[in-house]
Design a protein that fits this description.
Helix content: 25-40%
Number of helices: 12
CATH superfamily of the largest domain: Aldolase class I
Bound molecules: iron/sulfur cluster
Structural class: alpha/beta
Distance between the termini: 49 Å
Oligomer: single chain
CATH topology of the largest domain: TIM Barrel
Shape: globular
Number of domains: 2
Low-confidence stretches: none
CATH class of the largest domain: Alpha Beta
Length: about 475
Amino acid sequence: MPKKYHIHPKVMPLDLDYVSKFKVERGENCINCGKCTKVCIYEAHKRGQIDPRKMAEPNTVVCRNCFRCIQECPRGALEKSLGKDFLNIGGHYWHPDMFITLWKQAEDGKVPVTGAGYRGPFTGTGFDSMWTDMSEIVRPTRDGIHGREYISTSVELGRKLNHLVFDADGRLLSKIHDTVDLPIPIIFDIPADNLSPNVAVSLAKAAAKINTCIIMPVADITADFKTLIKSIIPCLSHKDIDQHEAILKKAQLVAIEYTDELLNDLPAVKEKIKKIGKALTIIRVPAVPDVETTVSKLAHSGAEIIHVVADYCGMEVNGPTSSNRRLMKDIIRAVHLRLVEDRIRDEVTLIFSGGIAMAEHVPKAMLCGADLTAIDMPLLIALGARLYEEPEKLLILPEGLEKIPLRVVIQRIINLMGAWHSQLLEVMGAMGIREARRLRGETGRAIFFDDIDNETFGKLFKKEKQ
Ligand code: SF4
Ligand code: SF4
């Protein structure tokens, strides 16, 4: 049995002014009896470090809203109130709750739970309009995902053969293509262009520690990244390949920005990269309307890995109006199904990014047809960044981020990925799927709200699909 892949989390708080849904406040009438330190299993209440006779400020970031401390305080000294900034952060896609979840995941690397249950709606747009079929969760013989059962989250990037050809003596004639294995179906995409070198190096180090990769503009790959090059995917225009031979020689994956011109030159470009080193080529395509046609042409021209990039809310770019733009779930399904129709799907690796905001978006994207996903914004949110969508996108990096020790930044990213990996294992275990690659395109194991809505009420309200 192969060694289990595990990401090791470690509690790593950041001294930041987080936004909280509720704020736990301790009133003047507190008698410092310490009962709240015992009743809060999440350790939101601690005694002061300088003077342990007095209680420290409650750490609201780790609070799971169970209200136990409020009920059990003998003096009624604790209060919970709605955080002032909570409703302003994020917007229509990046809901305020997502920030709190990502902050907690980066803080302790655990799958978040809430003590107050879920009171929100059970459907929404995009990934929120699909559910995974977790019927295997009730299988009585199941011995748990952390027990003897082995669940593999690894994925393979590269061109695969549709079929094998043998000669009359049974010798294999087909040439097996090179592939790159990653133990988790997530790579990083550099999340902003104004990152300090320290933060960029920390992200690359975190990627290396968990054996995944990070896509970075080739111009940003300075000498500081020398030892990390195997975990970095240099991104460049096909016209700049000659200038960056030294970097491409050591890389195992190279990302080339799509242009119409590239489509005609693709075999020559791939050949050129192969001659420099051993890197496999990823073609990075913006998720414009009808991107499936471009992806299909690329696949037929020999592209081995195609990365479709949507906007930060997982929407098509350059769409006519925001209300008409497709969301990531529908973009992935359209691209996947086009390649299935073309009978070429199994030969190509598809990566999707943009709007992958929560752990559950990874298996959902894979069920829609992705081989793996790339994440960007959650990396910054893990480091305390705030994003506001209205009236226009505004990303605020925490003050002093560039001075935070590298080990803190690295561990918070590792924690985030540890929590996402655990959640992926939970979903796969509950679905009875033992290999992440088997999730790909398994729409039969997902439930889509639009489909059941149409089946149930379509005839009644004439909503049937044409
Ligand atoms: S239980 Fe109440 S009185 Fe006791 S330390 Fe906590 S807040 Fe203060
Ligand atoms: S509400 Fe629950 S989780 Fe939050 S601080 Fe109180 S006891 Fe801890």
